[in-house]
């Protein structure tokens, strides 16, 4: 595991919010019939969590399940457990049409922390999403774009958000977030 | 001369002096000044010259509508041309230069155009096209070029930063005047989420200057109270210095916030572009005063009456000691009264109306101001500044009755509601005869997706000019907007304003109404572009009936102010010339932005390092550290080659190839697309996507495949590996990864939605490293952990394992013709494995090779490259790839298209190899000439080069090309005329130049 490095390799930036590499994150793509009892049971057996509804994320400890599309969820696990959990899931789903794929290395996770309004502002400079606290609460999960690339975002709590993007554009997204979080760029919009 | 009054001014902080420079001259102003007010306070009336005739120009307005007072602002990396002095807030160290003159503002050679004005009539530019061709080149073009353009283009990279911001609200209220504030309060009280945008730094709009009493208190106190109330409402956001620049479909509104223009030393972005989604938009954008068209109305010192008033009250600046007011409505009297109350002289109010004005006129009378009714200005006296006016009867032709000495003229031709934002998205206008204005037609608002209007005009923007009407209209606009977004308006009574008796406006489109050609030639409509009443009349005479055509022919309203002052006067003049009604002629189209916005704001953060996303492989940094020469491939950067000290790119490529063919090389192949296709119908699905059979591939095996679009054209290629019964992994080209994934999903979601197939794009999950060359196996054996012998892992097979303890999937596939392993490894361990391979390969001299070496090696083997041998019009049959097209399959995408007559035409150019007779390299893209000419008299062609390289392996130039009947013409020599004048001769040959039997890759 010592040879394993995340794309951002621990990068951090201190602006009016903190932007940092969230480190190695286990991720599993599960595609299948989200209405299937077998699939839902398999997800719960593997993660201890109930599959979330549209645009939601459920989490507990270091596990989470995020709704990606009508036939896809993203499962977040500790990095070194992703393979085992994926295998368990695939086993539980045998005989059922579905796709389980570990994608931990295909993506990067960035964390933003800071004052509640500020974290939202940094994201609202890049994503065409209503980031007001009324419209986007913790528990909500949005796939969107960050400037010119695809991304997804959610709030762990009022002062912390996480952003997922593809690995190849990790530097680009990290720089975007740093520019948006640069001192002097406070918007003072969200309350 | 203009000067500062002792009374200072409403918006000034006279405790803070500010130093600035104009054309290098040091001046001072106060905090709160605009550049225009500060220049006027320094006696600097002339601020620029006009576009066509280079006439002296001073400010005519005090706000966003200003056409004249344009300056170059700042220096170096902060220089910006065409900035309106009237909307530029003064700051310490501001440096401005005037524009469009040479050698100086005071003495300008270009002003000779003015003397020649009768040779530059309307449509001069277009008329030059009609002249003999030679005249355009030698006479007109130099003249037009010399005189064109206003400001200079900035030379340096912009030093500031910019950003975007996305906001979602129920209601955007545009304009922070009384109407906007009140509408925002009404909507806010109903509980709606409101965003109020004001373009200036101040709240209240014109009201504090124009005065009035609301609910028993002066209107400026009422404004303060409204602002205080709005600040306490959590659901209302106020932003000043933020102009709504456009209203678009689906309630999309752009806001242009100028954060540091007034304080450039402040940290932070200069401009922020607000990208707003609103359910309703209230346009409380106010109204703009119209100039009057009389001879000499462009002389510096002739201004809008409202501007004269603003400069006096807001900035404590008098435009002149003696100001003659000329008006066709009651508003002009406000200026006369304001000036008189400040102790300035008003020699006369010239009221074009025979019956004179209402209550304000009486007030002026009472102050002892001379009022002349039924009169007009025959002409303004003076050149670079006003020295007097000659007055005449408005009804006549301009016979001078009297000359009145003065330093300034304040003109009021009535008010035009600012209907721009209402109109951007399709709101219609109606002509109000009584008020002589176009105002929003409330029954024809811009409509949203539900067919309902989503823009509501309020206050004077809606044609309500009197304070009481403005208040009532704004209150109901705010409530209507709230209701439309599902909030619950309180239906409160509007605040009450003191009413005043006003006399009706009398439209005056020319002063005097019977002015002859000489006066009309000096009666300006568009001050910046020099369009006069005579020009529009000439256009009408020449047959221009449409206002849009007249605009373009005369350039009326095409200047940087987009005709905010000139449009209505211009179209009224056109209507008069055509003997038509104004509504019949109509307006030109209002388009965003309302006033120009910076390019920086549009670009937002997308500049410098984040101009475009740059995709990086896990080994990107390693390549960069070795000074790789990059090749852009989509958004990726791939190493083209790795030049060493003193090595040319060609040398480096040759070295990399020789090492790879001779021993072992390695390639970062991570960018190749990798798509998982899984499900019971996966095989059937791939049989449809690829031209060859995939469903019969055995797990553990690989097969090369071609993908065509439904028109039969080759779109991608790559190796497919069967992982298990249900699962395939499809490799695509680097550029094809996202596109092919989308292609798969499209067919699955639209056409074969009932097939049980899931796909996942796992391109970035893996780093992929190709280890290539006769010693490749030895390198992997040194790493250990996987049996890579021919028996265990034969050509076109794959297997999983752990190579030097790193989990890998090894594909034995070859794009070079050598013994080759492509090793997929989880991306986060890609660099680690890369390092281990280099270490293990050291004894064989292993080195990385770039894309150029990859290209040359594949060309030596006659392998096609998507994008080289294909261009979207090439089918696999053209490339001799019939072996990869299944004859057994009933169908695949492109099959039917490939059966069409044009596709089966034997005359389609076919792929062959080409070798020059002298071993030189054929020019890329060169065409092979044939005898004779085509119908257009062009040389006939019989083929073209698709790939061409110097092969270090063979020591000569090799190429591939598409040639008419090529495969049947082996050995024939054809000619390729080069763009360098040389004709290259090449012999048609087999496209496989190296190891035709494939023995090297199959060891």
From TrEMBL, chain A:
The lineage of its organism: Bacteria, Pseudomonadati, Pseudomonadota, Alphaproteobacteria, Rhodobacterales. This is Sarcosine oxidase, gamma subunit family. InterPro entries: SoxG, TrmE/GcvT-like.
UniProtKB/TrEMBL annotation, chain B:
GO terms for biological process: methylation; tetrahydrofolate metabolic process. It comes from the Bacteria. Its EC number is 2.1.2.10. Residues 170-421 form the FAD/NAD(P)-binding domain. The keyword Thylakoid does not apply. One of its GO terms (molecular function) is aminomethyltransferase activity. Residues 619-889 form the GCVT N-terminal domain. The keyword Membrane applies. Belongs to the GcvT family. It is an enzyme of class 2 (transferase). Pfam families: Fer2_4, GCV_T, GCV_T_C, Pyr_redox_2, SO_alpha_A3. This is Aminomethyltransferase. Keywords: Membrane, Methyltransferase, Oxidoreductase, Transferase, Transmembrane, Transmembrane helix. NCBIfam families: soxA (TIGR01372). The lineage of its organism: Bacteria, Pseudomonadati, Pseudomonadota, Alphaproteobacteria, Rhodobacterales. The chain crosses the membrane at residues 165-184. Residues 522-604 form the SoxA A3 domain. InterPro entries: 2Fe-2S-bd_N, FAD/NAD-bd_sf, FAD/NAD-binding_dom, GcvT/YgfZ/DmdA, GcvT/YgfZ_C, GcvT_C, GCVT_N, Sarcosine_oxidase_asu. Residues 910-995 form the Aminomethyltransferase C-terminal domain.
């Amino acid at each position: 595991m010592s040879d394993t490095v995340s794309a951002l390799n621990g990068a951090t930036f201190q602006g009016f919010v903190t932007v940092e590499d969230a480190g190695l994150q286990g991720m599993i793509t599960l595609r299948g019939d989200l209405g299937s009892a077998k699939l839902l049971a398999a997800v719960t057996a593997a993660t201890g969590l109930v599959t979330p509804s549209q645009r939601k994320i459920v989490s507990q400890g270091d596990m989470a399940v995020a709704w990606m599309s009508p036939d896809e969820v993203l499962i977040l696990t500790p990095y070194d457990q992703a393979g085992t959990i994926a295998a368990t899931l695939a086993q539980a789903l045998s005989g059922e049409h579905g796709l389980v794929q570990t994608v931990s290395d295909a993506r990067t996770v960035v964390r933003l922390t800071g004052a509640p309004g500020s974290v939202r502002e940094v994201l609202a400079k890049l994503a065409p999403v209503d980031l007001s606290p009324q419209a986007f609460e913790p528990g909500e999960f949005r796939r969107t774009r960050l400037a010119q690339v695809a991304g997804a975002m959610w709030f762990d709590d009022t002062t912390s958000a996480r952003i997922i993007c593809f690995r190849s554009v990790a530097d680009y997204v990290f720089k975007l977030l740093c520019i948006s979080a640069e001192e002097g760029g406070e918007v003072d919009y969200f309350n | 001369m203009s000067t500062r009054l002792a009374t200072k001014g409403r918006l000034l902080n006279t405790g803070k002096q500010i130093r600035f420079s104009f054309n290098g001259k040091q001046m001072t102003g106060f905090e709160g000044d605009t550049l225009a007010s500060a220049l006027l306070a320094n006696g600097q009336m002339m601020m620029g010259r006009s576009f066509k005739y280079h006439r002296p120009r001073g400010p005519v307005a005090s706000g966003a509508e200003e056409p004249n007072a344009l300056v170059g602002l700042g220096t170096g990396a902060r220089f910006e041309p065409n900035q309106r002095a009237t909307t530029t807030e003064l700051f310490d160290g501001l440096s401005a230069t005037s524009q469009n003159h040479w050698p100086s503002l005071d003495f300008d050679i270009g002003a000779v155009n003015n003397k020649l004005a009768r040779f530059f009539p309307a449509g001069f530019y277009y008329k030059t096209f009609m002249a003999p061709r030679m005249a355009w080149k030698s006479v007109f073009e130099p003249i037009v070029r010399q005189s064109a353009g206003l400001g200079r283009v900035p030379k340096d990279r912009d030093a500031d930063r910019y950003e975007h911001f996305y906001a979602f609200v129920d209601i955007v209220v545009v304009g922070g005047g009384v109407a906007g504030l009140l509408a925002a309060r009404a909507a806010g009280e109903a509980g709606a989420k409101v965003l109020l945008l004001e373009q200036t730094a101040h709240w209240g709009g014109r009201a504090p200057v124009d005065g009035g009493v609301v609910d028993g208190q002066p209107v400026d106190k009422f404004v303060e109270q409204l602002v205080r109330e709005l600040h306490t409402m959590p659901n209302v956001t106020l932003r000043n210095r933020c102009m709504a620049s456009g209203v678009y479909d689906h309630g999309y509104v752009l806001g242009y916030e100028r954060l540091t223009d007034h304080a450039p030393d402040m940290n932070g972005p200069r401009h922020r572009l607000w990208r707003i989604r609103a359910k309703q938009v209230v346009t409380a954008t106010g109204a703009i005063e119209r100039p009057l068209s009389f001879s000499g109305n462009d002389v510096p010192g002739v201004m809008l009456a409202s501007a004269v008033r603003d400069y006096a009250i807001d900035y404590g600046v008098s435009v002149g000691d003696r100001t003659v007011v000329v008006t066709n409505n009651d508003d002009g009297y406000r200026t006369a009264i304001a000036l008189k109350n400040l102790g300035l002289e008003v020699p006369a109010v010239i009221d074009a109306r025979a019956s004179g004005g209402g209550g304000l006129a009486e007030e002026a009378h009472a102050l002892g101001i001379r009022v002349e009714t039924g009169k007009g200005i025959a002409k303004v006296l003076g050149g670079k500044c006003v020295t007097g006016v000659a007055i005449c009867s408005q009804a006549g032709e301009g016979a001078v009755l009297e000359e009145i000495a003065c330093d300034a003229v304040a003109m009021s031709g009535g008010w035009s509601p600012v209907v721009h934002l209402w109109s951007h998205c399709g709101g219609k206008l109606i002509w109000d005869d009584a008020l002589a204005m176009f105002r929003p037609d409330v029954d024809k608002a811009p409509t949203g997706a539900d067919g309902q209007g989503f823009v509501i005009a309020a206050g004077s923007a809606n044609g309500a000019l009197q304070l009481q009407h403005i208040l009532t209209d704004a209150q109901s606009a705010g409530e209507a907007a709230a209701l439309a977004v599902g909030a619950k308006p309180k239906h409160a009574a509007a605040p009450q304003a003191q009413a005043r008796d006003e006399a009706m406006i009398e439209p005056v489109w020319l002063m005097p109404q019977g002015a002859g050609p000489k006066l009309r030639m000096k009666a300006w409509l568009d001050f910046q572009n020099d369009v006069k009443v005579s020009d529009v009349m000439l256009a009408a005479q020449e047959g221009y009936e449409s206002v849009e055509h007249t605009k373009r022919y005369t350039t009326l309203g095409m200047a940087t102010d987009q005709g905010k002052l000139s449009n209505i006067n211009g179209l009224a003049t056109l209507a008069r010339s055509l003997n038509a009604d104004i509504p019949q002629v109509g307006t030109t189209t209002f388009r965003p932005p309302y006033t120009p916005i910076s390019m920086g704001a549009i670009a937002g953060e997308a500049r410098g390092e984040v101009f475009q996303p740059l995709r990086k492989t896990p080994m990107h940094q390693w390549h960069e550290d070795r000074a790789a020469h990059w090749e852009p491939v989509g958004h990726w950067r791939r190493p083209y080659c790795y030049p060493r000290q003193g090595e040319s790119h060609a040398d480096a490529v040759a070295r990399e190839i020789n090492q790879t063919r001779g021993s072992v090389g390695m390639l970062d192949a991570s960018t190749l697309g990798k798509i998982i296709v899984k499900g019971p119908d996966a095989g059937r699905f791939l049989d449809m996507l690829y031209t060859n059979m995939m469903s019969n591939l055995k797990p553990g095996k690989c097969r090369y495949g071609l993908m065509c679009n439904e028109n039969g054209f080759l779109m991608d290629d790559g190796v497919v590996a069967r992982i298990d019964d249900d699962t395939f992994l499809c490799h695509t080209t680097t550029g094809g990864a996202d596109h092919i994934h989308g292609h798969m999903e499209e067919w699955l979601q639209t056409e074969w939605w009932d097939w049980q197939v899931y796909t996942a794009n796992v391109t970035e999950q893996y780093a992929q490293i190709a280890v290539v060359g006769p010693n490749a196996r030895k390198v992997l054996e040194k790493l250990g952990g996987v049996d890579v012998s021919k028996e265990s892992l034969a050509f076109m097979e794959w297997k999983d394992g752990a190579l030097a303890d790193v989990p890998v999937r090894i594909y034995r596939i070859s794009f070079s013709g050598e013994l080759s392993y492509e090793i997929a490894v989880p991306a986060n361990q890609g660099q680690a494995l890369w390092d281990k391979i280099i270490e293990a390969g050291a004894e064989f001299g292993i080195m990385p090779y770039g894309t150029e070496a990859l290209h040359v090696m594949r060309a030596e083997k006659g392998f096609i490259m998507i994008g080289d041998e294909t261009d979207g019009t090439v089918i696999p049959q053209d490339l001799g790839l019939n072996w990869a097209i299944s004859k057994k399959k009933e169908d695949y995408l492109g099959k039917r298209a490939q059966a069409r007559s044009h596709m089966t035409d034997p005359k389609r150019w076919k792929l062959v190899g080409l070798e020059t007779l002298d071993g030189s390299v054929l020019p890329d893209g060169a065409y092979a000439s044939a005898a004779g000419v085509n119908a257009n008299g062009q040389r006939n062609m019989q083929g073209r080069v698709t790939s061409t390289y110097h092969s270090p392996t063979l020591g000569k130039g090799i190429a591939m090309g598409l040639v008419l009947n090529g495969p049947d013409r082996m050995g024939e020599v054809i000619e390729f005329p080069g763009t360098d004048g040389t004709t290259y001769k090449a012999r048609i040959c087999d496209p496989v130049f190296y190891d035709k039997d494939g023995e090297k890759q199959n060891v």
